[in-house]
Design goal:
Order of helices and strands: HHHHHHHHHHHHHHHHHH
Strand content: under 5%
Number of strands: 0
Shape: globular
């Protein structure tokens, strides 16, 4: 396959994203007001709770089996490597650029999470259909390619909604805590302190960071011989841990959908009831697939709507955008080549060229579009996220073309 043909294969999916983003921006204009801020928030909630879980679970259930999971055991570690290395590079980028507090979670998320599902699901079948592809028979390539891409999407969704989601949540909560503390301080300066008794023991504003204060208050109500019961201390620390971990946030809807998809695909007794032309419950999977198809276009429209507000701060974001582009399109792909080739040399992965191509491609993808969903949920950096997505996806057509050509030459 020639370089020009490969350019069209890689750029067409990106062009679709850019066109839908432009449509979202147009619908969000004040004169049109079809996709206003409140509408985008409501749509984002539907994407988060309905469309994304349906997309992940349906694709995973149809293409993943127990045999494929055993054969592809290295992929979860490979995707985890992209997240961890990207996070480390994002942390270095933050140290260099010193961004505002509310953008730190966004920067780490964009550097860590690549578009593991949407783009591979579009690109890999297109590559398989091209004449001169190094991956053999187009039909066989399509079947295996969809399995690889679906597993990549599911694993990426688990890491995105359990790792990046909580990173953005933690940094956005720090911003909210700082705002609350500033408001409290201003109220105290304006005379609010006179309303509080001097000797009273009140509940701490931030319990997780002020355990000593609440314990001092407890000690004041006890005689010197008495000590704080150990059961009280254990209960307190358990409450702190539960607040920090936030299990409800950890098992986001897309993570739950991925787990359900794994169970349906891997367990034969369940699979035969849901998947297949003769399956009695095949309508359940068909309905989930039908819902999941709406996730990508809806999410892209929301991204375009958020872009209008974010363009105003483009000058401030230039160093960050350049840094994220360097991380995702230069450093990560180079490190990915070293990791995948080392894994092949030590026998951790099999010699299937298509499988190696997918593993390499995972290091060269633009940031995950669902980062826009996460920033919209927490209201932290949602406008800046749209600007970052615009430039990273605009350059992805060139970057993916060059890296895809090199990866195909490398595995052929």
């Amino acid at each position: 396959m020639g370089l020009l043909d490969l350019f069209f294969v890689a750029s067409n999916p990106i062009l679709k994203v850019l066109l839908l983003t432009a449509l979202g921006s147009f619908l969000a204009l004040d004169r049109i007001d079809i996709l206003g801020e409140n509408t985008r928030k409501q749509l984002n909630t539907v994407v988060f709770f309905v469309f994304n879980p349906a997309l992940v679970s349906s694709n995973l259930a149809k293409t993943v089996t127990f045999k494929s999971v055993v054969l592809l055991w290295f992929m979860p570690f490979n995707v985890l490597g992209t997240f961890l290395i990207g996070s480390a590079l994002g942390w270095i980028l933050m140290k260099i650029t010193r961004p505002p507090q509310h953008l730190k979670g966004l920067i780490l998320g964009c550097c860590a999470a690549g578009n593991m599902g949407n783009l591979p699901i579009i690109i890999i079948p297109a590559v398989c259909r091209e004449k001169g592809s190094p991956f053999g028979d187009p039909d066989v390539c399509h079947v295996y390619g969809m399995a690889y891409a679906s597993l990549s999407m599911a694993i990426g969704a688990i890491y995105l909604w359990s790792y990046v989601y909580n990173i953005v949540r933690i940094f956005s909560s720090k911003v909210n805590e700082k705002v609350n503390i500033d408001e409290f301080a201003s109220n105290m300066k304006s005379g609010g302190a006179s309303e509080l008794p001097q000797e009273s023991c009140s509940e701490a504003l931030l319990p997780s960071e002020n355990y000593s204060v609440s314990m001092d208050c407890a000690n004041k109500s006890m005689t010197p011989e008495e000590k704080v019961p150990i059961s009280y201390a254990i209960k307190y620390y358990l409450r702190v841990i539960s607040r920090k971990i936030n299990l409800r946030a950890l098992f986001a809807p897309s993570t739950t959908g991925a787990i359900v998809g794994f169970i349906i695909g891997v367990v034969p007794q369940i699979r035969k009831f849901i998947i297949g032309t003769d399956a009695p419950l095949r309508a359940v999977l068909d309905s989930a697939s039908f819902l999941g198809e709406a996730a990508i276009p809806t999410l892209t429209l929301i991204l375009g709507g958020n872009l209008l507000k974010g363009l105003k701060g483009l000058g401030i974001l230039q160093p960050l955008i350049i840094g994220i582009i360097a991380v995702r399109y230069i450093v990560l792909p180079l490190l990915g080549i070293v990791i995948v080739k080392s894994a092949l040399r030590f026998g951790f992965i099999h010699s299937d060229p298509l499988y190696q191509f997918v593993l390499l491609l995972q290091y060269a993808l633009p940031p995950a579009m669902n980062i826009g969903t996460i920033t919209q949920l927490f209201g932290a950096g949602k406008s800046e996220c749209s600007v970052i997505m615009l430039w990273t996806y605009a350059l992805a057509s060139v970057s993916l073309t060059l890296w895809s050509a090199f990866f195909m030459w490398l595995v052929a």
